[in-house]
């Protein structure tokens, strides 16, 4: 059984862009490896070891990202007034007068520092398929709390 990873079109594009950037950098890293190899004894050649390791990391990252694209299920945002993948949502947490805006994304795209939360995270699950004005209960390891949906964009 193949497990497809849900992601937004923007997340898919970010992976494509990173792959293009890494492929562009690969010839430079190969050249560094060749230059280090030409320095002589490989058993004591730190430059060669580092260049080989760096190229290996680049190749590994390319394989990983390639698999992410291969098994991606791109979900287009629905504009039905409910919280869906790709939606931006303004939330008000209980005991807090401030509102916060988040974008609902796939698991691989989630980055709280950038305001992106996964649809299947505890917060994401609590608000998915709800409309503005509704309240969701987040079941977190530290305890439950309520969050009100102020706006769905």
TrEMBL record:
Q: Which UniProt keywords apply?
A: DNA-binding, Elongation factor, Protein biosynthesis, Transcription, Transcription regulation
Q: Which stretch is the leader sequence?
A: none
Q: Where is the Transcription elongation factor GreA/GreB N-terminal domain?
A: 6-74
- Residue spans making up a coiled coil are none
Q: Where is the Transcription elongation factor GreA/GreB C-terminal domain?
A: 79-153
Q: Which GO terms describe its molecular function?
A: DNA binding; RNA polymerase binding; translation elongation factor activity
Q: Has keyword NAD?
A: no
Q: Report the transmembrane regions from the record.
A: none
Its annotated function is as follows:
Necessary for efficient RNA polymerase transcription elongation past template-encoded arresting sites. The arresting sites in DNA have the property of trapping a certain fraction of elongating RNA polymerases that pass through, resulting in locked ternary complexes. Cleavage of the nascent transcript by cleavage factors such as GreA or GreB allows the resumption of elongation from the new 3'terminus. GreA releases sequences of 2 to 3 nucleotides.
Q: Output this protein's name.
A: Transcription elongation factor GreA
Record organism: Lactobacillus hamsteri DSM 5661 = JCM 6256
């Amino acid at each position: 059984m193949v497990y497809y990873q849900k992601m937004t079109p923007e997340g898919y594009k970010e992976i494509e862009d990173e792959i293009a950037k890494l492929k562009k950098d690969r010839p430079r890293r190969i050249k560094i490896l060749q230059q280090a190899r030409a320095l002589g004894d490989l058993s004591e050649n730190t430059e060669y070891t580092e260049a080989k390791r760096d190229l290996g990391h680049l190749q590994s990252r390319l394989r990983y990202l390639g698999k992410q694209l291969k098994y991606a299920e791109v979900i287009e945002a629905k504009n039905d007034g409910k919280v869906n993948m790709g939606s931006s949502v303004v939330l008000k947490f209980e005991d807090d007068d401030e509102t916060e805006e988040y974008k609902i994304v796939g698991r691989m795209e989630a980055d709280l520092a950038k305001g992106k939360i996964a649809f299947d995270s505890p917060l994401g699950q609590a608000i998915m398929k709800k409309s503005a004005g509704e309240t969701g209960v987040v079941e977190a390891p530290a305890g439950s709390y309520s969050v009100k949906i102020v706006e769905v964009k």
